[in-house]
Amino acid sequence: MKELQFEIKNVDNALNYASKELRLSESYLDIEVIDKKGMILKTYICKATVKVQPAEIAFETLETMFQAMEVDAKIEMRVRDNKIEYKIETDENPLLIGKNGKTLERIQYYIRNLVNQFYDEHMIVQVDIGGYKANRKKQLEILATKTAKTVAKTRIEASLEPMNAYERRIVHTKLADWRDVTTVSKGEGNKRHLVIKPKRR
To answer: Is 71 found in the same domain as 43?
Structure first.
């Protein structure tokens, strides 16, 4: 979690200073004076720490988001080590997932950035709606295996459809230990995709 130790002449300005340095709202921070220097022209050694739980902030943000959309949603949150997961079930799953998972991807991007503003280290944040990602993972692993078998047999490389980084990683991981094929990423932006190639014998 982010924290900041600094020296300041006026304690009343400490919260505002820390807010700007850490790029966090003042309402998220606590200020503690840990030492004083000087007899006449005093300066104060202060420490700013985050007083909220980022995972809870993100949970409340999701709740507010769905309430604004007038969507009833059940949200489950799981926090472990450097990973936070949100599993969501609603009657509007297709709407919130979007075509090819694009809406879900945007929701996760927003929540991930919201959480990570509180940390110096990177937190893994995953949002899943209606089990879409679990199902998509299975589909991609089946596709990867089927395509890899064809490539290994024919010795002809094959390009897969454009995928986001998370989906490409699933395919990479699934085929990482294959002796006959290898995977490489090609293209830029929304056209970034995987190519499954035969390994040289």
So the answer is: no
